[in-house]
């Protein structure tokens, strides 16, 4: 079943176009890697899906509903969670209050933290009273993903979740994303620079270049030739 469908999507910043006629179809339960060199439009694509960038052309369907003109908060309430590059947790709020912000994004009144959050991220339970800004980079990334889970999403959009994180925590994040995908059936799209990470994590991939999709397929089809052509600097 198709969960997310982009048709001829064009978007940018002000009068500057960044994305050009992007077509993309994501199935429910998929784990997708979105690859490309810096500046090719990967972050803009995620921001366009969540509604932070206005489309100049094209359409966007989510869970069989046309959300092309829906504002970001309505997209969040329909089940799209966005974990931005740099994590953007609130540094002076406690871990607990950062998590509660995720519930607010869903439009629900309950502020209870589901026990499964601590099953996926047991470290967070130990640091609930601590200010988010005092956590390590890897801990902050886990908090950001957990905050996204708080809105009970159907799909999670993650922008470079391994950036600046030590290898042991990168492995933890990979394992946790696999569990979230397999145990909860949540579709995941990950923008990432680390090719090995995507090869181990994702089931399928898209490669972007100059604001367009230039290659796609199963992760087995992510050949060294494609990597050399579109991803090496």
UniProtKB/TrEMBL annotation:
Family classification: Belongs to the ABC transporter superfamily.
Native organism: Waterburya agarophytonicola KI4
Positions of the ABC transporter domain: 4-233
InterPro entries named in the record: AAA+_ATPase (IPR003593), ABC_transporter-like_ATP-bd (IPR003439), ABC_transptr_urea_ATP-bd_UrtE (IPR017780), BCAA_Transport_ATP-bd_LivF (IPR052156), P-loop_NTPase (IPR027417)
Gene3D superfamilies noted in UniProt: P-loop containing nucleotide triphosphate hydrolases
Keyword match Transport: yes
Protein's recorded name: Urea ABC transporter ATP-binding subunit UrtE
Keyword list, A-Z: Amino-acid transport, ATP-binding, Nucleotide-binding, Transport
Biological processes per GO annotation: L-amino acid transport
Pfam families in UniProt: ABC_tran
One Gene Ontology molecular-function label: ATP binding
CDD domains in the record: ABC_TM1139_LivF_branched
């Amino acid at each position: 079943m198709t969960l997310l469908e982009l048709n001829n999507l064009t978007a940018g910043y002000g009068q500057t176009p960044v994305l050009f006629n992007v077509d993309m179809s994501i199935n429910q339960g998929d784990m997708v890697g979105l690859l490309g060199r810096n500046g090719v439009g990967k972050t803009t694509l995620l921001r366009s899906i969540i509604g932070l960038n206005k489309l100049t052309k094209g359409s966007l369907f989510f869970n069989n509903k046309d959300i092309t003109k829906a504002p970001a908060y309505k997209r969040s309430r329909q089940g799209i969670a966005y974990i931005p590059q740099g994590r953007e947790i609130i540094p002076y709020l406690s871990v607990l209050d950062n998590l509660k912000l995720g519930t607010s994004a869903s439009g629900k009144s309950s502020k209870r933290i589901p026990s499964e959050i601590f099953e996926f991220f047991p470290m967070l339970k130990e640091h609930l009273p601590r200010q988010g800004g005092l956590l390590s980079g890897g801990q902050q990334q886990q908090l950001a993903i957990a905050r996204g889970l708080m809105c009970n999403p159907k799909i999670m959009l993650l922008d470079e979740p391994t950036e600046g994180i030590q290898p042991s925590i990168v492995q933890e994040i990979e394992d946790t994303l696999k569990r979230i995908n397999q145990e909860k059936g949540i579709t995941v799209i990950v923008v990432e620079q680390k090719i090995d990470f995507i090869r181990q994590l994702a089931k399928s991939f898209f490669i972007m270049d100059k604001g367009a999709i230039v290659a796609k397929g199963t992760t087995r089809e992510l050949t060294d030739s494609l990597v050399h052509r579109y991803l090496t600097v």
